[in-house]
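Key idea: predict the complex, not the pieces.
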Amino acid sequence: DAKTTQPPSMDCAEGRAANLPCNHSTISGNEYVYWYRQIHSQGPQYIIHGLKNNETNEMASLIITEDRKSSTLILPHATLRDTAVYYCIVRAENTGNQFYFGTGTSLTVIP
Amino acid sequence: SAVISQKPSRDICQRGTSLTIQCQVDSQVTMMFWYRQQPGQSLTLIATANQGSEATYESGFVIDKFPISRPNLTFSTLTVSNMSPEDSSIYLCSVGGQGAYEQYFGPGTRLTVT
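Result:
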């Protein structure tokens, strides 16, 4: 699976959009981009995933560049409950469903 | 989505002893996984728990230290054997979701070895 690079930490003002970047320059054509988050003392929670098209769900939007070498997770209106570690993971569809977590970005939403 | 429970939620154990952690899912699932999260660190995959056969371990993890059982499609156990303080971590169980896209994680078991 391709490796990802994320900034170790970010701050965001409450109510503003949080834009979390992820670099995955070695991504292969059959690898999806997944985002998970881990709120303190809880298990990771699935947020969103995509292959090459931009995706949106009730939690967030995922913007993938045309060359697929980077992506951005957007939380449109960050709340204090969005304070968590956010993990960007790339994984091929047919690799047995294992996920290999990187170091992630610790997002702090500030009142 | 799947609802996952783990027992115990936390424990404090003495070095040299063993602890068995249970993972129960509210529906039958094909894939079950065990992860370790050391203090301040990210998650590390320990093994895939296979139903009806031996678990598949990741590099750096061995069956003698982390024996795993998977007797059916809703239950698995992970044993941390001959514990040392370096085994102090959160141990998480996860399962593969419908369509094998996302994984659902249990709440974790916080283990402290003294």
